[in-house]
Specification:
By secondary structure, the chain is mostly helical. It has helices at 34-43, 101-109, 138-141, 145-167, 169-176, and strands at residues 27-29, 60-62. The chain has a two-stranded antiparallel sheet. It is elongated and about 100 Å long.
């Protein structure tokens, strides 16, 4: 059960730890005792075969799979008879070491920089993406009727202005042309 010193990857399913990504973890080789090795293989839910072969220098289990009681006190070495027990499938979760951006900024400034939490009021809930369907009437219920009338009047004014601009465009181009054929 020697700790590895080279590039190591955890052989536990759903564990993506490696010595390169998590240099603070220790990686332990499978025990040489046959009975103890069978316990480890059973615990990590792997079967030795064509797709999984236990090799002395390249098959490891990372330290996240062991409890603190499995280690010799003050050392990163495992106690004799230790078996990995902490796995993703038995709801073991390690919180991330990195603080969030807000927590890092708060610790630097000594003030809470997170935006205040506001209550979100949802007027309607769309179950699926249906971009061709009309939005439900409940969506417009929160808007006053006069605001919709004002918006409609403003749209009509913009359309009239656009029409007036388009009608006068032939006169604008006519100023720069010598004859009607060059337009």
């Amino acid at each position: 059960m020697a700790e590895s010193k080279n590039k190591s990857f955890c052989s536990v399913p759903r564990c993506s730890n490696s010595k390169q990504k998590q240099p603070y973890l220790s990686f332990h080789g499978f025990p040489s005792d046959g009975e103890q090795k069978k316990k480890w293989v059973r615990a990590i839910r792997r079967d030795e075969g064509v797709k999984f072969v236990i090799r002395r220098e390249s098959t490891f289990v990372c330290s996240r799979q062991f409890t603190a009681a499995d280690y010799i006190e003050g050392s990163s070495r495992l106690k004799p008879g230790a078996v990995p027990t902490r796995f993703q499938w038995n709801n073991f979760h390690v919180p991330p070491h990195k603080l969030s951006a807000f927590e890092r900024a708060s610790s630097r400034r000594g003030v809470d920089v997170r935006p205040p939490e506001t209550e979100v009021v949802e007027t309607f809930c769309v179950q699926d993406h249906d971009y061709a369907a009309r939005p439900p009437a409940a969506m417009y219920a929160c808007l006053p009727v006069c605001a919709l009338d004002d918006a409609l009047q403003y749209i009509e004014e913009l359309e009239a202005s656009l029409q007036k601009t388009l009608m006068g465009s032939s006169n604008i181009l006519g100023r720069f042309c010598v004859s009607d054929e060059t337009i």
